[in-house]
Every structure is written in structure tokens, then in C-alpha cells.
Write a structure and sequence with these properties.
Pfam families: DUF4399. This is DUF4399 domain-containing protein. Residues 1-29 form the signal peptide. Residues 57-147 form the DUF4399 domain. By secondary structure, the protein is mainly beta. The chain has one domain: Immunoglobulins (Immunoglobulin-like). The protein is built from 2 helices and 9 strands, in the order ααβββββββββ. The strands form 2 sheets. Strands 2, 4, 5, 6, 8 and 9 form a 6-stranded mixed beta sheet that branches. The longest helix is centred in the first third of the chain and has 12 residues, at 2-13. It is elongated and about 40 Å long. Residues 3-11 and 14-27 have low confidence and may be disordered.
Amino acid sequence: MQRRTMLLAIAAAFPSTVLTSLLPRTALAGPTPSPPGAEVYIIWPYDGAVIHGGFWVRMGLRNMGVCPKGVDRPNTGHHHLLIDTDLPPMDQPIPSDRNHLHFGAGETDARVELPPGKHTLQLLMGDFNHVPHDPPVYSKKITVTVK
């Protein structure tokens, strides 16, 4: 928390262009606050799982609610599954492509088809506009092997 307070003091003293060059990428997040203790995690598959064919990803969430895109309610968001990619910029809408799957209807599980090989999976919560919360709520990255 001390670092965040210090960064806010710097923000007040310098123009925003100077501030953005000083901050790490994850320090810049969207305008929607996340609730204290919010945690997103992958229930299934587990890290290191070997999967045959398509599979269901089950998404878990603690201390936060799920709400569809476009619905602006406090302490809620919707899941985004990141496949074979790193976290996107935290101050912009999460991309929508084959590496960033959106679950804007409020889904908490989804059928995923991936080609054979090793793949990484990670969850990132987005607000009603698909922008990560502040602070961002994301899971640890796991690796699965598809046969």
C-alpha cells in the first residue's frame, strides 16, 4: 500500500505522460475498483493436466460477483480466459481474439478446443467495459498438455 500512496503523490506532482513512463504496466488499471480480497482461479483443468481433445474450463471467483458485460454493478465483473499469452495492458479493454476469450454473458465454465501441445491458461476479470479492475484480479497461469 505504501508504494501505491507514493505513486499517487507522484501523479499529483507530474504530468500524466511522465507518470505513465514511471509506472509498471500492472500499476495502471481501469477505473472500476475491485473489492478487497477478490480472487479468480481456474477450478479445472489443474496445472499440469494432460487432456485428450476438447475440454471444459471451470472458473472460480471469491469475494466478487459475476455480472454480464455492459452491466455496471459494484464488486462485479466477468471472466476472460487468456490462452498462450501474457496479461494485456491493464488500462485498456481486454482484446478479443483467439488468445483472449470473453465470457460477457457471465459464464463460469466454457468448452475449449485447442490443438495438440502445451498451452498456458490464465483468467483475468474485466469490468462492464472489458477493462481490468483496479487492482486487477487475475489467476495464476497454468500449463496443460492437449493430446
